[in-house]
Amino acid sequence: MPETEIAITRIFNDYLPGVGNAILHSIGLPAQPRPWANFVVMQIVVVLLIMVAAVVVRIRLSASSPGGLQNVFELFYEFVLGQAEGQIGHDALRYVSFFGTLFLFILISNLIGLIPIFESPTKTASVTCGCALATFFYYNLMGVRVHGWKYILHFMGPKWWLAPLMFPIEVTSHLARPLSLTIRLYANMFAGEQVTLVFLHLTYFVIPAIFMGLHVFVGVVQAYIFMLLAMAYVGGSVALEQH
Description:
The chain is an all-alpha fold. It folds into two domains: 36 residues, no CATH class; 189 residues. It contains eight helices and no strands. The longest helix has 40 residues. The mean pLDDT is 89.
């Protein structure tokens, strides 16, 4: 069943089909009459919102009289840094930009669907898979960056003679992480959005508000869990206790 275009996707397809088809061509896909999908457009919207907020904070940055948005970002930064230090240790600062960006993107993506003219891109599996793969490649890249070729010993187990057994187990375990991250976030956000939409169609009083509140709670918790797991994976890959 084809998806129903939301208003902003319709604008993209009416006025920017050439750009969409150019992107499809660059990844080896055939041109489409209406190439823009809702989840792609919504990701662009989320990224633009984050960029605009960052630019506004940067322009108005002040040590003596910080504005409300700057205070919010400072609290957010301290929260992410505190969580990262708890998972990684004193070197956590170098990874905060990734964790903060990941958390903001997922959080806004989870919650933007509550605005009637938008929908949550994280209710699409390919979006959550992209976040999961970004996390997977990032923590392995950081492990290689810190330990070099010795990072491979991380998969060998505590004793050399256990390596033939531990290596396939560890590799399988690590490869399962993107799948786990993808399904957890996608399933929760898809289910939450569907339940909210069902009750919005049934009644516009009280009950939808309850489920919208629950949707906000689930969206925040899922973004936090995703970030926390990413921190745990990075912490494990850069830990000093490599065998």
